[in-house]
Amino acid sequence: MEAKRWVSLVLLALILVRLSSLDLFVKDSDQQVQAISFISDLKATFLGFFDGTWLTTEDASAENEEIKPKHVILTPNLTTCHKSLSDADRPVYCCPPKRESLEPIIDFEFPDISEPIRVRKPAHKVDADYIAKYNRAIAIMKSLPYDDPRSYMRQANMHCIYCTGAYNQQNSNSLLKIHRSWMFFPWHRMMIYFHERILGSLIGDENFALPFWNWDSPEGMFIPDMYLNGSMIDTQRDSSHLPPQVADINYDYFERGLGPEDQISTNVAFMYNQMVSGAKKTELFMGCPYKAGENGFCDGPGTIELAPHNALHTWVGSNLNPEREDLGAFYSAARDPIFYAHHSNIDRLWNVWNELRGNKPAIEDPEWLDSTFYFHNEKSQLVRIKIRDVLDSSKLRYAYEKVENVWLNARPKPSVPPKIARQVLKMRENQNPFLDISNQAIVSPDFGLNGKRLDTTIRVKLRRPKTHRSKIEKEQEEEIIVVYGIDISKDAYVKFDVYVNAVDETMIGPESREFAGTFVNMKRGVRTVLNKGDLVVKRKTVFKVGITELLEDLEADGDETIWVTLVPRGGTGINTTVDGVRIEYMK
């Protein structure tokens, strides 16, 4: 009976493949080809059932033994690419001209060890010969037709597809996203890895490597000159932020008005917080564990993704466009060539963070390691690649030129001597209690705000469950502030900062030790579904920030209570409510 069933399925598959010649096509407003025949959808859906990436299984020990799944893999269903929405709710269509599920798929293989190591250099240090070579590669890529997966717009639209929810997950009707979780670093590493190799192939240079925008170093805190000429030009940038303007890597839609030296020192101090004191534990840096299915969804970005990543996307994008296109909107970000230099630096910082912790495996969860995505290589072949394949950049045959990470020695100092700050805060509490936003009479580690709107500064006093912890205890568990139940009523840009024991948070920023971290929400547009029953998971966001080292510097490690302040930036908190703030300990 089983044999007859499989024969019938094979015959049906052959019929559907034969019917593929009946597909009809139309071009949309962007001259992108879309299949409109119901037959192609039927065929693709059917073939999706044979995609072997749904789950990994244990081998059966006997012919008739039931095969049980080991774990479900997060991966796109290639039969489901559909229209999605831009950040401003405008429909966008980023899908390839034909379903990728109809293409032959090969599994990723590491480059041969005989290949030269591609060395990525700081963009502000490359020479004229390199710039000419890179310009030529981009020009060739832009000249390729859209049906060539190596073409510039197809490359850019890969980011659009995965960032606006254009794919459903395999074996699920939930949409797939790769931002705001532990998928962020490895997925972008995959994207720029294949992009780099395609560029090199187009100019016949196996040594070609992408540059990285070294915006965490004072010398690199400007849009590199190479992106102002030739094929590197993108007219959709904020003209007020072009050189010699120093980049604000913690940008919040408003100009701070700082001079170059002050902006640079603020940037350097901010990097220390995002890379060191605020990123002591894996989840704080990498983001929350996002897994397959509706129940596997999470929304908790890591420090670097929040900023400088999100902040610089916004800072570069044009202030004349409704969504700050190109770089400022997820759907269009990869159209700007500087996108790849931006993400090369983020990729480099992932390596640096691993080095700071002794290159110990950060995540050993097989559901993360086996998460699978698809990219075209330099031969236009569709490649199936897993996160476990990209954890060691040396095996991928690329490296970064060593640069000084000046922020490692930029540990901020308190803006006010801690003893004086403690006295001022106590006096202020007696005169005008911070607890006026709640009837909560007992100070606890969890301060409920009952969905309070973040349209103004919120201050709460929290009791610390553990004080005077030993060095070993601090290494084992990071004390963290958790801002939970963050609910953004519409898809909007939102930014707020978190301070601890701040006397006057209006006068300080990342350069002061009281600054604990920043939350940034970029517009995402993940709301359009393929079928009526498909799920757009919307859950409240959680923001976690480490404070163990901060408390030491504020001489508050032995204090039973601390004051926590949430400061909305740029008027962006009007659409945001918060359920509460608490203290936890993360292993």
Strand order, biggest sheet?
A: 12-19-14-17
Approximate helicity band: 25-40%
The number of E-state strands comes to 19
- Rg of Cα set: 25 Å
Would you tell me the structural class of the helices and strands?
Answer: alpha+beta
Using the alpha-carbon principal axes, give the shape. globular
Strand content: 15-25%
Largest sheet properties: 4 strands, antiparallel
Low-confidence stretches: 15-69, 434-441
Distance between the termini: 53 Å
Number of helices: 13
Mean pLDDT: 86
Cofactor: Cu(2+)
InterPro entries: Di-copper_centre_dom_sf (IPR008922), Polyphenol_oxidase_C (IPR022740), Polyphenol_oxidase_cen (IPR022739), Tyrosinase/Hemocyanin (IPR050316), Tyrosinase_Cu-bd (IPR002227)
Domain Tyrosinase copper-binding: 336-347
Signal peptide: 1-22
Question: Please, could you describe this protein's structure?
Answer:
27% of the residues lie in helices and 17% in strands. It is globular, with a radius of gyration of 25 Å. It has 13 helices and 19 strands. The longest helix has 19 residues, at 184-202. The chain is an alpha+beta fold and 587 residues long. The strands form seven sheets. The chain has a four-stranded antiparallel sheet. Strands 13-18-15-16 form a four-stranded antiparallel sheet. α8 runs antiparallel to α9 (338-356). InterPro entries: Di-copper_centre_dom_sf, Polyphenol_oxidase_C, Polyphenol_oxidase_cen, Tyrosinase/Hemocyanin, Tyrosinase_Cu-bd. Pfam families: PPO1_DWL, PPO1_KFDV, Tyrosinase. Residues 336-347 form the Tyrosinase copper-binding domain.
